[in-house]
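Run log // design_07
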């Protein structure tokens, strides 16, 4: 009987240890890859949200590189693009809906919770959370990372909201896009939907 209990205890400990190993993402992988994996877990079963943040990340990285953003600023931009909509789940749970403002309110605490186990760089986490908490605020944009995140999100949102695309593209192009690269991509992606004035 004692041997059976000991074996049962050892088996449970082994199972817990294995679960902990599976929950731990090796720190040797780059931060963006680890964040991407955690965000897919966070939105498990919600393919639309997962595809959305992956597309925003791809455009943010591209625009950032086209604009010459490098180093930590590019990494902040990429991580912020991956977690920018992390507030949607809590918005829908708390309020029964989500808007840009509720996402901005609910997103930073969730982003912080996700990032703390992945990096000990407090300033990095703070900037990412700031971007998450402002990515639907289009006035007083401070920083290239902020501007590019907004533009990348717009490129994806414009495509996903096909119902009002013609009017929305023209308005966003004129009012939101500021980087040369973002404007170029907007024109190239949406030229079949709407004629954008040369500028």
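design_07 sequence
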């Amino acid at each position: 009987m004692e041997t059976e209990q000991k074996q049962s205890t050892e088996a449970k400990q082994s199972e817990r240890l294995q679960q902990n190993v599976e929950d731990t993402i090796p720190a040797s992988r780059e931060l963006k890859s680890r964040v991407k994996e955690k965000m897919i877990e966070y939105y498990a079963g919600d393919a639309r949200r997962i595809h959305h943040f992956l597309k925003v990340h791809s455009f943010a990285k591209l625009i950032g590189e086209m604009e010459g953003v490098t180093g930590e600023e590019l990494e902040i931009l990429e991580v912020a693009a991956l977690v920018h909509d992390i507030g949607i789940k809590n918005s829908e749970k708390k309020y029964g809906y989500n808007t840009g403002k509720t996402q901005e309110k609910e997103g930073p605490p969730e982003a912080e919770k996700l990032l703390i186990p992945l990096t000990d760089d407090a300033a990095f986490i703070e900037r990412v959370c700031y971007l998450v908490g402002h990515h639907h605020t289009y006035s007083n944009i401070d920083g290239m990372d902020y501007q590019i995140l907004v533009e990348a999100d717009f490129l994806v949102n414009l495509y996903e909201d096909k119902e009002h695309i013609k009017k929305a593209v023209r308005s966003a192009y004129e009012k939101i896009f500021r980087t040369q690269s973002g404007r170029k991509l907007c024109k190239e992606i949406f030229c079949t939907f709407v004629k954008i004035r040369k500028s």
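Confidence is low (pLDDT under 50) at residues 16-22.
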